[in-house]
Amino acid sequence: MWFYQSLVITSIRLIGLSGEVFVPTIVSHDRNFVELVVKHIPLGIYVLEVSGNGLFEQSKILINR
After folding, report:
1. What is the pTM of this model?
2. Nearest one of 45, 40, 42 to 62, comparing CA atoms
3. What percent of the chain has pLDDT over 90?
4. Residue 52 and residue 10: Cα distance in Å, rounded?
């Protein structure tokens, strides 16, 4: 999902199983890697939604610490 050289990310959010939404802050990024920070998020399974340049991706992730 991060392998687009000219990707301009317009929206990133984490959605919990009960519908709560968290908006992470992008700390750093390069062509193949994006580092996100989310403060005060409970442990659990979330759907990571990323959109930009007309693209939309969803991935399930586990936050465990």
Report:
1. 0.71
2. 45
3. 23
4. 5
